[in-house]
Amino acid sequence: MHLLNGMRGALIGAAIAAVAILTAPLYIDLFQIMQLTVFAAMAVLALSLGFIWGYGGILCFGQTSFFGLGAYAYAVAAINFGDSTPAIALAILVPVIFATLLGYFMIYGGISDVYLGVITLTVSLILFNLVNSTAGDFYKIGEARLGGFNGIPGVPTFNLPGDPSYILTPEQAWMVTGMALILVYLGLRVLIASSFGRIIVAIRENETRAALLGYDPRIYKLITFMIGGAIAGLAGALYVNWGAFVSPTIFALGLSAQIIIWVIIGGRGTLIGPVIGCLLLQWLVTEIGAQQAMDANFVLGAILIVFVLLVPKGIAPTLRDLAMSRLSRDTAPAPTADATAKVKT
Amino acid sequence: MSVPLLQTGGLTIRFGGVTAVDQVDFTLKEAELRCLIGPNGAGKSTFFKLLTGQLHPTEGHVHLRGQDISGARPHEIARLGVGIKTQVPNVFNAMTVQENLWIAARHKHTPAYATELTDQILSELRLTAIAHKEVGQLAHGQRQWVEIGTVLAGEPELILLDEPAAGMTHEEVERTAELIQDINRSRALVVVEHDMQFIKMIAKTVTVLHQGAVLIEDDVSRVLEDARVRDVYLGKGLAA
Ligand SMILES: Nc1ncnc2c1ncn2[C@@H]1O[C@H](COP(=O)(O)OP(=O)(O)O)[C@@H](O)[C@H]1O
Ligand SMILES: [Mg+2]
To answer: How far apart are CA B80 and CA B52, in angstroms?
Structure first.
């Protein structure tokens, strides 16, 4: 009951977004649908970092490791099985296993937050170099040639579950990707409202206090890290499905930095923020690319600086604060203000 | 013959050249209320950190009901029923008062019962009016109360309070003293405090720490009359 009350706004928003996603092909051309598909896949990736950093307090500089592993796992599995359904499962499973091992080593090893950032970044660079050097016939997993820096072309895209002969149209693939984004968002909302969600926020706020109350911070952080890996892996599968292609640049530094910028600009400590930040910046970069008047990286950097200085909380929390102060001004004695302040988007 | 609730033997910790806690033998019976006093830097907070697993001893041991917990981690010791209010408040700043207590209560209980227990403690501690305020925005005295509430919500059997009355108004100090006596009806406590008035209000047995070691342990009236204790508090003994 209580949970549903807090979720009402999210459910209504999700329902509206779902209708928009499902009807979009009616009034948007295919080119734009394709563009929106990759935006949505990236937004899932943004959610993965938005969750582990914003709620778990884990700043992972190498979220692309899980994204890339998911993408490669999907590509290799889809080529071997000729069916996307088990490939998607593996795109989640492989990064989760990797996140478990890496997370266990870092978190139970008592590595500090700063080193965790450095190590995750380094791991993504190692993966980049590893996969980059897999050119040649020797590097094959079953039928799939890893292809080194050339990547894997011609990856089978999503098919109807249970019917590999029915390949989804680009419009259907868009709907699947958009709905995946909504489901991941709602799933995370439910998780955050649960006891587990409250406990990880408490650990983010004060690890010592949480431990002194009997919670083992390590297991909670590890599970958070694993969930982040799972979501990033799913995003990887969605991404490969979009382009039917994957190459080692998926592990590259540029993307790692971009994810962090999306979260900072959209707003840490919210879920909608990273989605907004991701969609907005991708759209902007695409526009700038189309006009070719300015350098996209330069504009990204400038926007980041402006935000860090002027809107340090990011878009979503700032908008929420504005709405909240207006709300409490309009309804002079506002006993509900505190109660609503608790409901984080 | 009964096993004491808490017992330390030869408990020692050194930081480089500093021996912060020095060969401390300390015994606490079930449901006992003990005051731990000593000048600044005597090692009281460090002693509490050793009891709660935040630090591990260089030498010696800590036994809780006969079980060796010297090397245990903080969450393991907490699960054995030890709760602590630290000197520098450890609270969840970005969360509300209600949420702070709820997290503590949730460890043992279902979400619904945790909410019930939280409400009960909030009203006992007269925190209901600020239940939905963010703890980070409260004054120091109020944050102390929130932390005490959080400790109580964890339902520990042994409660350690490190300077619980610091930053409180006179009236709040009296309420804290009442609360401690109230808690002591069913549970054991060790209270570190500087304020002698406060000690007189609650104390039966007092342990005095000085330069990491136990200087004297006796009935409150005798401790407060003791010449060495006065020396220590006036600073004369510090050079020794
Ligand atoms: N982590 C540490 N590293 C070095 N010295 C410390 C550390 N913690 C405490 N000390 C020293 O141990 C002594 C006891 O400190 P503390 O336990 O805080 O005293 P009290 O709580 O009685 O005022 C002090 O001299 C302090 O400087
Ligand atoms: Mg102290």
So the answer is: 10
